């Protein structure tokens, strides 16, 4: 617990005065303090070292014990793999969210068991590795994107992906405690959810780990607020989260969003599409923070995607750390790195984006003048082709009626307009090569 390093050995049966003993104990305390600071590379909490120096002149027989107690108490408070959880709020700033940790977060806990209006999902409460899609009654801003669908899971997380692709859905999640939970192990395990119109809450109650049920039951919940705020509340965490095995299932706490990029490559003689997923600004919460009665709040920050006009987009570029750009073609503001990254590149927004307010005004004037300039070029071409076809048909009918003895006139009199086209004899019909074939294959 406490050791004195490199101290001179006192001679046996030596006669020491009180001043000599005080000097000796002072040297011992300073040496021990320096040894702990050097070994742990941590700063002692409080005034343990200062108190030691202040009491150097009045050390008594119990002084060394008091100093030992202060040093051990300070050592127990040191940081181990992250900030120490205290009653004070711990803040952590990210690009899209600000994170706040509350050690005493009982006021943020709202038990859904027995709560009026809450839904006890029988399927999720009795099945392992199960999911269920739920429609939200409000639009939830997630990384700036408005989300109305949520996929609940038995694994302690919610999926908020808009894509039906299961691969990217694994990167778009809100996870109060993602682990291999199996509600089917006991009848007391339940999954509830509640939608009040302003907030959506999901609660996992008395759920056990599939590969370690002896660890005990977990009870926690996740709340999505209409304002974009996310709250993780932990009622019962029987073991440290760092001790949960991730061999069969990922263990994670936090939020994530992602986009993908497709590239066509020639691989082993075949053209194939390679899809690469990119998770941007994921928030991973320290696992040592999560204990009984703690709570974590994720508050959204201003971003590009929530801007709805070109002017707002340029303002976000100046007031935030995002490099916001307005794409007039998509009517969207972005820095190019969000879940619609592929659409941003396909539309050429990375080349034609506007990020200056002066250009926003010029662009808006051009849009007002566009309706007076006439139709689009492709529409004019289609109208011209249709006009030529109609004019040719009318000219042929006029010629046939005015020249009844001509081939067109006789055909029109005898058979009508629909039968004047006669197929060529079969022996003159074109034939394709017998060994030709069409090979279409979509690779992914």
Summary tags:
444 residues; alpha+beta; eight-stranded antiparallel sheet; disordered C terminus; Plexin domain-containing protein 1; membrane
Strands, helices and their partners?
Blueprint: H1 18-40, H2 48-54, H3 63-76, E1 90-93, E2 97-102, E3 119-120, H4 122-125, E4 131-142, E5 145-153, E6 158-159, H5 166-169, E7 173-178, E8 190-195, E9 199-207, E10 218-225, E11 230-236, E12 252-256, E13 258-267, E14 270-279, E15 283-284, E16 295-300, H6 310-319, E17 325-327, E18 332-334, H7 341-346, H8 349-352, H9 357-369, H10 377-402, H11 407-414
Antiparallel strand pairs: 1-2, 2-16, 3-8, 4-5, 5-6, 6-7, 7-12, 8-9, 9-10, 10-11, 11-16, 12-15, 13-14, 17-18
Helix pairs in contact: 1-3, 10-11
Radius of gyration: 37 Å
Strand order of the largest sheet: 1-2-16-11-10-9-8-3
Uncertain ranges: 1-19, 21-86, 368-373, 423-444
State the order of secondary-structure elements, H for helix, E for strand.
HHHEEEHEEEHEEEEEEEEEEHEEHHHHH
């Amino acid at each position: 617990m406490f050791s004195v390093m490199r101290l001179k050995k006192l001679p046996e049966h030596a006669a020491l005065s009180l001043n000599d003993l005080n000097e000796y104990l002072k040297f011992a305390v300073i040496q021990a303090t320096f040894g702990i600071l050097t070994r742990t590379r941590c700063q002692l909490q409080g005034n343990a070292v200062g108190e030691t120096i202040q009491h150097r002149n009045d050390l008594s027989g119990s002084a060394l014990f008091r100093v030992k107690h202060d040093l051990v108490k300070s050592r127990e408070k040191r940081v181990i793999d992250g900030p120490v959880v205290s009653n004070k709020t711990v803040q952590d700033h990210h690009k899209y969210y600000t994170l706040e940790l509350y050690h005493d977060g009982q006021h943020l806990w709202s038990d859904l068991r027995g709560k009026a209006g809450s839904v006890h999902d029988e399927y999720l409460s009795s099945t392992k590795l199960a999911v269920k899609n739920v429609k939200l009654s409000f639009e939830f801003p997630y990384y700036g994107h408005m989300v109305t669908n949520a996929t609940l899971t038995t694994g302690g997380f919610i999926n908020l992906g808009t894509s039906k692709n299961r691969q990217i859905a694994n990167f778009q999640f809100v996870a109060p405690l993602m682990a291999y939970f199996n509600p089917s192990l006991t009848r007391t395990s339940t999954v509830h959810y509640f939608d009040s119109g302003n907030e959506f809450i999901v609660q996992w109650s008395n759920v056990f780990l599939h590969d370690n049920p002896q660890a005990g039951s977990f009870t926690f919940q996740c709340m999505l607020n209409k304002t974009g705020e996310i709250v993780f509340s932990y009622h019962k965490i029987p073991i440290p989260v760092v001790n949960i095995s991730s061999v069969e299932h990922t263990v994670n706490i936090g939020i994530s969003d992602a986009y993908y990029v497709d590239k066509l490559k020639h691989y082993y003689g075949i053209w194939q599409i390679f899809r690469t997923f990119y998770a941007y600004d994921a928030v991973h919460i320290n696992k040592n923070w999560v204990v009984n009665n703690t709570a974590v709040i994720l508050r959204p920050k201003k971003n590009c995607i929530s801007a709805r006009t070109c002017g707002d987009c340029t303002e976000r570029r100046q007031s935030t750390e995002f490099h916001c750009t307005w794409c007039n073609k998509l009517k969207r503001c972005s820095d190019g790195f969000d879940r619609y990254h592929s659409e941003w590149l396909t539309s050429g927004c990375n080349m034609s984006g506007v990020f200056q307010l002066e250009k926003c005004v010029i662009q808006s004037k051009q849009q007002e003048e566009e309706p007076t300039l006439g139709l689009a070029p492709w529409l004019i071409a289609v109208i011209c082709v249709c006009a030529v076809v109609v004019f040719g048909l009318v000219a042929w009918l006029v010629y046939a009626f005015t020249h009844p003895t001509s081939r067109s006139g006789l055909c029109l009199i005898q058979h009508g307009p629909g039968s004047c086209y006669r197929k060529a004899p079969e022996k003159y019909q074109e034939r394709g090569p017998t060994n030709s074939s069409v090979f279409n294959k979509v690779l992914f």
